[in-house]
Amino acid sequence: MKKQIYVIHGYGASPDKHWFPWLKRILGNKGYEIEILKMPTPETPKVNEWIAKLKKDIEIINENTYFVAHSLGNITLLRYLSEYENLNEVGGFIMVSAFDRPIKGFEELHPFVETSLDYKKISEKCKLKVIIAAKDDYLVPFEFSKEISKKLDAEFYLIENAGHFLDRDGITELPLIEEIIQNNNI
Fold this sequence. Notes:
It is built from 6 helices and 6 strands; from the N terminus they run βαβαβαβαβαβα. It has helices spanning 20-29, 47-57, 72-83, 119-125, 142-151, 175-183, and strands at residues 4-8, 33-37, 65-70, 90-96, 126-134, 155-159.
């Protein structure tokens, strides 16, 4: 059965920003079904709208379903999986710059982190669990991502210089994701 990969962008982003177009092209050329979800009102995100978007656009979740998320897309994905009733086995996820607590200066995003998450459920149901962070991330401290990796028993990759993995940081490709997918025979 074909692998389905959903990409969930973050705050202020869109499917055509950062490294998302590159990822879609690279994985699409290798035969993966990949969809970059266009999250509603990315400049003024509302948690209920973002969760509703995932519920609407993701038709089936099973062992062939994978997620790649960035920044605000990560906490959205974690909430979605945590709240998912009767969650079956999931192929897994790769999260970039993940956080699950308030970030100073981004009070408008606090509603995304106000609900507790069922990390045990997510960890048990996901096969592939990877979190990527940058030591020099100026928006999400890498320690936040590292804490989540421990809560989910996920593999943790720390990159020296990638900022917040944005195109303005020079990140328009993220070969580590392709490498992880290949190394795990996804």
